[in-house]
Each structure stands twice: as structure tokens, then as C-alpha cells.
Amino acid sequence: MYFDDKSILITGGTGSLGKTLVDRILSGELGTPRKVIVFSRDEAKQHDMRVAYHNKTVTTDEVIYNNFKNVLEFRIGDVRDYGDVCSALRDANIVVNAAALKQVPTCEYFPMQAVMTNITGASNIVRAIEEHGYRVETVVGISTDKACKPVNVMGMTKSVQERIFNSANVLIKNTRFICVRYGNVLASRGSVIPLFRHQIRQGGPVTITVPEMTRFLLSLNQAVDTVFEALQYANPGETYVPNAPASTISNIAKALIGDRAVDIHTLGIRPGEKMHEIMVSEEEANHTVARGDYYAIKSMLPELNVGSEEPFSLNQAFSSADNVLDYEGTCRLLREHDLLLTDEDRGGEEAELLR
């Protein structure tokens, strides 16, 4: 199976995606890895994650003391630091680059911080593999719908990350560089759902940007599904995109509020935001193919598309405004992911999600 006897490095591994990715990898659904390395710069999050996994095991050994002996290993480091990246990559077979500055307003106010993490971090990974000849089989760059025709710094830096990994396939023949691109992840840290639920619990108001604004929605497990699909089937230079549903911000808020007496206040678009997100642009549509529940955007570099005979499947952009769920559909989607339960049933969900 795909992960059998592989060493997997996850940069930014203590984030929402990273933690779900680690859970799924360690579940064995794609095989038994030799090592899973969580690489991040936040020691507090690493400690919490380490303790959480320690409590799931039957061993009596303190996890921290046996860090480098365990399948799950934690490394403090920063993708911005070339030396840290080299040290972490040395024995990796698969790299998932989930380290990112991803808050749109934050990146607008501190653009160089976004450049250093989202662009320099990706460049450090490519440079380390090229200069040291590391035997990395595959690098997956985690991108976002905001990288498609970007209007904000976060999207611009993620778009450059995609290009860095794309072009690396031409220069480094023995490593496959691919990307995944998806929209808002339901209930992930920093997303609107934990914020809305917190506001509802406080009695409101729920604050939205613009009622008609639309966003793609998928769960953390569906985001991991996209990573797994790309790892197994993507060709060098391809970007995998899930065929995800979308909803308006107002319907998300109304679905979460339900029959509670909670007001909704409109604040307006924040710095750098779009009304509608685009997962595949009209320019990319003419080299995008359908593969099951996903689209694969082929590289624009001709060296990477020799011999491809798959028919292109889109004749226009894939936008969150195309097929928007109505209120009932939004409720069904949120209910499917256990986000419409009562406050009593949900217990301390907000405290966990807002940590």
C-alpha cells in the first residue's frame, strides 16, 4: 500500500489539516508508515498533540523521552529556515507542505510575513532537495482556492508556491512535485463556523461579511481525501481540486442559528476578500481533466505534459457562484458533518476549536 514503510514529513503538522492528516495516516488505510514527522514552530501545539496521542496508546513511557524512537515524531523548526528544512527532509520519502500563513486580513497587513512562510518555505524545500540530492519521492503543496486569480496577499503567495513546485519538476527529475487546491474547510481553526457557533452561544449577534458571498465547503476529512488522491494518482506538476459544493455566508449563519433568537449583523467585505471564490480559472479550464470526484489541472509547462491524451472537461471557470446550495442543502451539509447538533450535545466544542 502507498504509505508502507515510508517516512512522511508534514510541515505545519500541528494545524487543523495536519492533525487530521496524521490521524488518517496512522490509521493504516493506505498502509503502515515507517515514520510520520510533525514539523512546526509551535512547541505548545506540539506538546498538546504529543500528549493527545500518548493518551491513546497503552505504553507507559513518556512520549517526549522516546520522541525519535516512535513512529510519530515531533520536530521544532520553521520552513523559513533553510537549515531546519534540510534537517527535517534528510530521511523523508513524502513531504506534505501544510505550513502557511492563511488568514487573509493578517496577510494583507503583514505581506512579507506571508511571503517568508508561503513562498520562501516552499523554495527552501525545493532548494534542499536539489542541493543535497535528498531521495524525496513526492512533495505535495497545500494550496487554496484563493490562489486562483488571486486578489489578496494570501492567495498571491500560495499561487507562487504552486508555481515553485510546478517548475521544480523540470529541474529535479527524481522527485514528483504536485499540489492540491481546495476551499474553506468546515470547522477548521480560523474558519467561520467555530466563530459563528461561539457568537451564537454568547447570544449573538452573528457577524457576517456580505450575505451573498459564496464559499466552497468541505470537511477536514475531505481535504485529506484530496491529498491522498493526489498522492496516489497525480502526475508531476498537476494540481488536484475537489468537486466541492458551495453555500452563501448568510445560509451558513442561518443554518447554524436555527430557531434561536440571534441577530445577524453585516460588516462588509474584509481587506483582500472576494465575493466568490474560483477553484479553476477560465485560463486553467482548457487544460483541466476530470478524474472521479476531482479535477486535475495540468501544468502549463509543455515539458510536463508530453503524451497526455485525456480530454479536457471544463469550458469555463469552476466558481463557488456556479452551483450554490440553498438553505435546506446547507443544513443537510452541516448536519452531515455533525455541526447542527444542540449546544448541549456539542458540549465544549467551541473551546476545543478556538484553542
What does this structure look like?
- The chain has 13 helices and 16 strands.
- Strands 3-2-1-4-5-6-10-15-14 form a nine-stranded mixed β-sheet, with helices on both faces.
- The radius of gyration is 20 Å and the shape is globular.
- 38% of the residues lie in helices and 19% in strands.
- The longest helix has 22 residues, at 111-132.
- Strand 5 (138-144), helix 6 (153-171) and strand 6 form a beta-alpha-beta unit.
- The chain has one domain (7-353): Rossmann fold, CATH 3.40.50.720.
- Helix 5 (111-132) packs parallel to helix 6 (153-171) and helix 9 crosses helix 11 (327-336).
- It has helices spanning 16-26, 43-56, 82-89, 104-109, 111-132, 153-171, 192-201, 220-233, 249-257, 282-285, 327-336, 343-346, 349-353; strands spanning 7-11, 35-40, 72-76, 94-97, 138-144, 176-182, 184-185, 206-208, 214-218, 239-242, 246-248, 264-266, 278-280, 288-291, 294-297, 318-319.
- The protein has 355 residues and is of the alpha/beta class.
Helical proportion, percent range: 25-40%
Task: For the record, give the distance between the C-alpha atoms at the N and C termini, rounded to a whole number.
Answer: 35 Å
Largest sheet: 9 strands, mixed
| Rg on CA atoms, Å | 20 Å
Total strand segments = 16
Average pLDDT over all residues? 90
The CATH topology comes to: Rossmann fold
Oligomer: single chain
Total number of helical segments? Answer: 13
CATH architecture: 3-Layer(aba) Sandwich
The overall number of domains is: 1
Q: Given this structure, which CATH class is correct? A: Alpha Beta
Shape: globular
From the helix content, strand content and strand pairing, which structural class follows? alpha/beta
